[in-house]
């Protein structure tokens, strides 16, 4: 990978002895809700949304992601009719099973991945509409441990959640949260590194993570720790692009950035009823946390079509078929903008694709996908995500690195078979 730039440092070596032990999901300490829940809303704006240029209709002729379980480690995932196969994976914030979302962020992320289509109501769908979502609540800006300021979620909790997701059989794990600190401050996230290695190498999961947003205190002009992105051998890290295919002004660069995906003009699911949302507390949704689930959905499609591929083969294919920037890659967009149809079509693979010499047999046809999934073809789920929890604020108070969300600072109030 070469020497990191001035704003990056390398992660510690993986120590499997630090892997969190298997245990039921639960908060580390008793918690209480401190603020009212955030509600996503839909404005009358009819402008194009972040998934419009991905040619999903052509992609769905090949696969819709049936048979894949995608774990969303986030603020929880609320029940929604367009997430018909939602599974509760556990709650590290409060009581529950991961299917409550007081922040709205996790539900938006899940919708981008797997919202079912609903032609009768709108044109929105998740990238892999027949994939199953596992909701794991690992962070929230609305809850707090007793005696603490609002905000829950740190790298130790994330490590436990990754272990849980892997043990639940997630073929893809989406992490739309980022912990970033100056390297001089230090960050012991070795249990997270061990959990990521376990998920990829032992449990055969593809892990996708947000790159982070530079307008949220992550770019201090000095060597930075950016976790989980810096564990580049185990994580596919995603930058954000605008609707014109240009890198978003806020996307955080680094040597660990692998690819880029749409992260602006976001539309997804609201936590209220069966509504959609493109605003959170009145603010437009954008961020790398909403670009990551686009790639998680693509990973689910690839794993459905080519079920024998390893996690690293899936990661390599996504990078090899991206639209490369000049020079092949850079620290802003990595290998470039993802191309779902190219990633799923062997003939379109480039000559340097490491998988070109041995094409695997594709998985079931879309018609059998629907039967296997046991879900009708017309249920949609959408995700909107431009959020970063009040992590760095809490870090300053508690001395712990708390997870942020890839959301603009001005959006934060004072992640069935």
From TrEMBL:
It is a single-pass membrane protein. The active site is at residues 74, 105, 289. It holds the Pfam family Peptidase_S8. One of its GO terms (biological process) is proteolysis. GO terms for cellular component: plasma membrane. The chain crosses the membrane at residues 382-403. Coiled coil: none annotated. Residues 1-31, 348-373 are annotated as: Disordered. The keyword Transmembrane applies. Its main location: membrane. Keywords: Cell membrane, Hydrolase, Membrane, Protease, Serine protease, Transmembrane, Transmembrane helix. Residues 65-336 form the Peptidase S8/S53 domain. It is found in: Cell membrane. GO terms for molecular function: serine-type endopeptidase activity. Gene3D superfamilies: Peptidase S8/S53 domain. Belongs to the peptidase S8 family. PANTHER family: CEREVISIN-RELATED, PEPTIDASE S8. This is Type VII secretion-associated serine protease mycosin.
């Amino acid at each position: 990978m070469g020497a990191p730039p001035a704003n990056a440092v390398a992660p510690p070596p993986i120590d499997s002895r630090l892997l969190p032990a298997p245990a039921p999901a639960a908060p580390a300490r008793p918690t209480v809700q401190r603020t009212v829940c955030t509600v996503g809303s839909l404005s009358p704006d009819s402008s194009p949304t972040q998934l419009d240029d991905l040619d999903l209709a052509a992609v769905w002729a090949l696969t819709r992601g049936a048979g894949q379980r995608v774990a969303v480690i986030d603020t929880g995932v609320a029940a929604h009719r367009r997430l018909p196969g939602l599974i509760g994976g556990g709650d590290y914030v409060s009581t529950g099973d991961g299917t409550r979302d007081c922040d709205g962020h996790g539900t938006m992320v899940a919708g981008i991945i797997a919202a079912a289509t609903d032609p009768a109501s709108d044109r929105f769908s998740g990238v892999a509409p027949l994939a199953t979502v596992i909701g794991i609540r690992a962070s929230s800006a609305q809850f707090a441990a007793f005696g603490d300021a609002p905000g829950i979620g740190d790298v130790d909790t994330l490590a436990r959640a990754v272990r849980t997701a892997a043990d639940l059989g997630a073929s893809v794990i989406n992490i739309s949260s980022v912990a970033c600190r100056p390297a001089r401050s230090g960050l012991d996230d070795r249990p997270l590194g061990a959990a990521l290695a376990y998920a990829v190498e032992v449990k055969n999961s593809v892990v996708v993570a947000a790159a982070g947003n530079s307008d949220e205190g992550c770019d201090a002009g000095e060597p930075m720790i950016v976790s989980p992105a810096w564990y580049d051998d185990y994580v596919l890290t995603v930058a954000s692009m605008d609707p014109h295919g240009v890198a978003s002004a806020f996307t955080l660069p680094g040597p660990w950035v692998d690819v880029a995906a749409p992260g602006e003009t976001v539309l997804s699911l609201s936590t209220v009823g069966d509504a959609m949302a493109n605003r959170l507390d009145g603010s437009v949704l954008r961020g790398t946390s909403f670009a990551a689930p686009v790639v998680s959905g693509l990973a689910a499609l690839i794993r459905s079509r080519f079920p024998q591929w390893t996690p690293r083969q899936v990661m390599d294919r996504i990078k090899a078929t991206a639209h490369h920037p000049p020079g092949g890659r850079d620290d802003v967009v990595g290998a470039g903008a993802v191309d779902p149809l190219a990633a799923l079509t062997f003939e379109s693979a480039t000559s340097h694709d490491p998988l070109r010499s041995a094409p695997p047999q594709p998985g079931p046809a879309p018609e059998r996908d629907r039967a296997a999934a046991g879900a009708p073809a017309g249920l949609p789920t959408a995700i909107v995500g431009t959020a970063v929890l009040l992590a760095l604020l809490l870090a300053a108070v508690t001395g712990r690195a708390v997870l942020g969300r890839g959301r603009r600072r001005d959006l934060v109030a004072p992640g069935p078979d």
